[in-house]
Design a protein that fits this description.
Elements lengths: L1 H16 L6 E5 L4 E3 L17 E6 L11 E8 L4 E13 L12 E11 L2 E11 L4 E11 L4 E5 L6 E5 L2 E5 L1 E3 L1 E5 L1
């Protein structure tokens, strides 16, 4: 039994680390504030036209060390001990510094269920994305989610986070604590 657990843990760590011994991490924001809707918006809810989308911009100056690196995963931090969500994570780069409106397109790097364990949402990318050095947009399309309260930083300007949901289009002054895993 211990051997099965060890092998399973080893395989999962290889998947999340991208099979790289040179795995590096960078964490953005301090996690002092909390928010009940970023980056996950509780469902079920009344769907009018589409699933809610959370769009978060990460200014290139805060992630300069990731330039020309392959992103392998992302982690958000929560006050929630355990929960689950079904999401798509879409990545794109832009020349914008503010989330003035929805940014279309991008590459879907994760699709499926994530489990929140020990106040963390670890999302291993199942598609490779090489970061080129512009402002990075992370879009989270929420199909289903338990109530999840995330840690992050209250910000004033520029507004980096946009909620796009049926009947709701709003900028918020919150940016989630985020760890990027790359090599």
């Amino acid at each position: 039994m211990k051997r099965i657990i060890f092998v399973s843990t080893f395989i999962l760590s290889l998947i999340f680390c991208g099979f790289s011994q040179n795995r590096t991490q960078i964490t953005i924001n301090d996690g002092v504030a909390t928010c009940d809707i970023i980056p996950f918006y509780e469902t079920p809810y009344t769907r009018v036209t589409s699933d809610p989308v959370i769009q978060i911009l990460y200014n290139r100056d805060s992630i300069v060390d990731m330039k020309d690196k392959v992103l392998r995963g992302i982690t958000f931090y929560t006050t929630t001990q355990s929960a689950k969500a079904v999401i798509d994570v879409v990545v794109k780069e832009t020349g914008r510094n503010k989330a003035g409106s929805a940014i279309s397109g991008g590459i879907t790097v994760f699709r499926g269920m994530v489990n929140i364990k020990n106040h963390r949402i670890d999302i291993p990318f199942n598609k490779i994305y090489r970061y080129k050095g512009k402002t990075l947009v992370i879009k989270i399309i929420i199909t289903q989610s338990d109530r999840i309260s995330c840690k992050g930083t209250t910000i004033t300007t520029p507004k980096q986070t946009l909620i796009i949901s049926p009947g709701l289009w709003d900028h918020v002054t919150f940016s989630p604590k985020t760890t990027f895993v790359y090599y």
